[in-house]
Every structure is written in structure tokens, then in C-alpha cells.
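Lab notebook page, bench 4
Experiment: in silico fold of construct C2
Operator: M.H.
Input chain length: 158 residues
Purpose: comparison with the prior construct
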Amino acid sequence: MNNTLIYGLIAAGLVAITVLAAIIFRQLQQEKSRKTQQAAQEAEWLKQFEARQEYLSESIRLVAHAILHDEKMTATEGCIRLKVLLENFRPQLLQEETFQVITEVHDKTSHIPIKDEWKALPKKLKLEYQREMEQLEQGHLNAIQGAAKALSRGQYLS
């Protein structure tokens, strides 16, 4: 083989190595950038999740406190609100014996209209529903108050 061919092949090999090294370096930089972006996005999601959990936790405490201390909040309304909040916060809490009453009251009153539908009801039907809710509340008052006390103190929420 002649020297020119050998040097030409060496030069071509060095060019190929340089090009491939540049491509590898660029891909490594892109991968590093992608991982950095992914980590930042995960951190943002975690921050949002923690903020949402804190909001739900505080809302649960406030509703539980209102059940115990605010005459405007009926135990039935409180159970309905707590059921939704706990389902979004930690659904497994509703399986605990202390909080099963919340699900029971919620389920037994799920047929009762709320908000605008409640306002549109005839007075006679409203009274029937109110009696039904009062009977349910009286039958479960101690359990509802026990659950509300535990939640208003922040138990199970941290």
C-alpha cells in the first residue's frame, strides 16, 4: 500500500471519530438537559401535590371543626363534605372504623338534592328530608362527633 492511501485512511478515520465523538457529546448534552427538565417538572408536580394535600388537610380540619362548633353546619352536611375531601386526600381513611360513619351518612343521604336543587324543592319535601337527616344525625351523633374531633385535631392528616 502506498503511504498516501494509508494517510488518507487515517485522516478519514480521524474525521469519522471526531464526527462521531461530536454526535455522542451532543446526545449526552441533550440527555442531560432532558433529565434536568424532567427533574424540574417532577419537583413542580411534587410541590403542587403537597400544596393540594395541605389545602385538603386544612379544609378537612375546618369542616370537622365546624361540625363540632358551628350551628350552621349540620352533621349531615359535614359528613357529605368530609367524604368528598377524604376521598381526594386519603381514601383509605374512610375504611377506618372511626370514619366509616362519614361514608354511611353520606350514602344514606345521597338521594337528597343539594344546592339549587334543594332550593327548588317544595317546602313539604324539604321538611321530610330534614326530618330524615335529623333522625340519621341523632342515631350517629356520637360517632360523627368522634370522627370530627379526630379530624379537627389533625389526627390522621399528617
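Observations: The CA atoms of residues 40 and 144 lie 43 Å apart. The helical segments are 3-69, 75-89, 100-108, 115-119, 123-152.
Next step: discuss at group meeting.
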